[in-house]
Sequence to fold (211 residues):
Amino acid sequence: MSKQPAAKKRLELADGVTLYFSRHGETQANVAKRFQGHTVNTPLTKLGHKQAGRIAKILKARVDDPAALAYVASPLHRTCLTMEIIREHLGLPPKGFKTDKRIEEIDLGKWDGLTHKEARALDPELFDKRENDKWNVRVPGGESYADVADRAERWARSLKRDTFAVSHGAFTRILRGLFLGLSAQEMSALDEPQGVVFRVRGSKVKEYDKP
Fold:
């Protein structure tokens, strides 16, 4: 397990590599405020489809040649569908991208599909302990933030060319925190926006919410 990230110890991309990444579009589980990890894959909402199209517009406006990027998505359905919509709006073959399990959402184990209230009812003490220390405390049958950070670091360090990725809320929060050198508590407090694009060069993160 990774040690808790220390301030100013930032993850950095290889020289000359630019990473663009987004969260998948809104899903029915997001609207219902239910945990959504590996096993629960609800459809994108109408807004989720629009958010994917918005991401494509941002890429068109911010990237000189979107077709030259490497495209990769988490293998889960909601991320792949978001990527397909984005690529279609860019005039690219919808399925012309790779998937990588290293950028999957955090495994939420027994909490997958539950609301916060339902998950807490299973074991209030563990739920509260995890809320106070997401870095070290694993969801029952699932992962901790440190587990996700391990695979996020391995993936980011493996990038050799400019890349666009579609991943998930907790994963993109953790990835941003690693680049920014945030503490575990600061990382956990980050938002999880949809319909935006993050750009990373070195360890500098920039958010684009408009084309």
